[in-house]
Amino acid sequence: MSKIMVVEDDASLREIYSIRITAEGYEVVSAGDGEEALAVAVREKPDLILSDVMMPKISGFDMLDILRSTPETAGIKVVMMTALSSDDQRRRGEQLGADRYLVKSQVGIEDVVNVIHEVLGDRVAEQPQANNEQPAQAPASNPTPAQ
Predict the structure, then answer these.
(1) What's the CATH superfamily of 3-120?
(2) Which of the two residues, 71 and 87, has the higher pLDDT score?
(3) What are the residue ranges spanned by the domains of the chain?
(4) pTM score, two decimals?
């Protein structure tokens, strides 16, 4: 089971995300600010961190920078979420090594859950098929010569 850390200074949002992510079968740990998140990341070694950007003490960007430059946490996947939708902010998150950058006003909780699955690579994308559609078959190994 993958472990997800939710980093959000709004306790209600942190709880909502934690409950929904737990319902997906993940183990969840949380932190209320970037400083606490750094300590929890080293101790818990989550597979993915879902983090707000604007937080007290240490911002999400500064937290990400420290995570990426610390050998014990450099490989943790990080999804940043923010109200900041400017291209400069997005570029900064990407330059610091965020695996994804989501704007809160543009995504719902199900979108966030889908991004977590996608970044972790733990869900096969479902390909709907019509009932009468058959899977493609490989060509025969000994085709009949044309006459």
Answers:
(1) Response regulator (3.40.50.2300)
(2) 71
(3) 3-120
(4) 0.81
